[in-house]
Amino acid sequence: MTTHSHPPRAAVSPDLVREAALDLFARQGYHGTAMSEIAAALGIRTPSLYNHMQSKQQLLAEIIDGTTRAVWADYEAAITGHADVTSRLHAAAEVYALRHATHPREAVIVNRDVSSLAEPLRTEVRTLRRRHERAIRRLIQEGCTDGSFSVTEPALASFGILELCVSIAHWFRPDGRLSAEQVAAHYAEFAVRIACDGHER
Amino acid sequence: MTTHSHPPRAAVSPDLVREAALDLFARQGYHGTAMSEIAAALGIRTPSLYNHMQSKQQLLAEIIDGTTRAVWADYEAAITGHADVTSRLHAAAEVYALRHATHPREAVIVNRDVSSLAEPLRTEVRTLRRRHERAIRRLIQEGCTDGSFSVTEPALASFGILELCVSIAHWFRPDGRLSAEQVAAHYAEFAVRIACDGHER
DNA sequence: CCTACCGATCGGTAGG
DNA sequence: CCTACCGATCGGTAGG
Predict the structure, then answer these.
(1) What is the pLDDT of residue B11?
(2) Inter-chain contact B27–A115, Cβ cutoff 8 Å?
């Protein structure tokens, strides 16, 4: 007999709550999502949520903090072992693009709702993102120095390359014609094209 | 004497309300902004706002609808009179980039809060934006046919080029080192680079 | 996991 | 332009 103990319905866990929040925050925004909607998505009442989480703000903090740290770890892992600067920029863009294709909901939330994050985390996240941007910028400057790239304003190129990759999160669907890896490869190529001057070759 | 009639304080108008809403929606998001904050920014009480506007939703609708229509009008004006496809893509990207530098708050709201728009306007706005993307895509396809461009996936390039320009709204400051026109010129160059293959020249 | 309920705040209206 | 106030909903707690 399987019905003599606790019924199997519900069975909510912290991970399931985070998953439901991820879905709703991405679709409706942090301020646009009510805790009652997260509860409804899980088939429970709102107060029951608080057995699995601390607060709405904490849910947002975990999503954004985890994603931001993972992006930086991705970057550091990606650029090691590449001799030339073109390969490093290609790898940095590819791994960033890939994350936005494989984790589009996290990416949308990071970019839309970071302003809803409480201090001091908001500042920490912005600092880490700035570090990433400056790393890309230095890569571009390095390539301009050794003749690999040709960019008049490296800051504009680094902003552009990063946002180019971010944009994938707004349209990519895993069941689409192209895989996440294929899309990431194409966008890495776009990133290198932005840094190179096609007319000079 | 200038104090015998209505005191000059306040003097709120529909345009001032829209301006205050533009500022707060851009900084905090539509759902993250309370009508009381808009009123406080204007130095009046919340109910007084309703002498100058219909509803919070109507404020959002006017901002997004007006911006979306202007973007399409920009595009149509920009591409006329250019003989070759490279010039047309350059002009289309430049005018789109320029709008995001000169109207960053409107751009941020369009991109972040379109999902908060009530139907049928939400669908209308999305249709108009899709038309713009398809026009850019056709431009790229045309350039691939006549040998001006080299892109394996024109849809990926059109998405990327548009989002590249959108990203300007997230960092551009009118008092910065580069003018809106200078930034737009650089990003138009990036757009053309994305479409061209630098390694083949 | 639930019901019952908290104070706060929301967008908006009545009426002057 | 204001005060006074509406019903609805918010995130979260008490207590079981």
Answers:
(1) 81
(2) yes
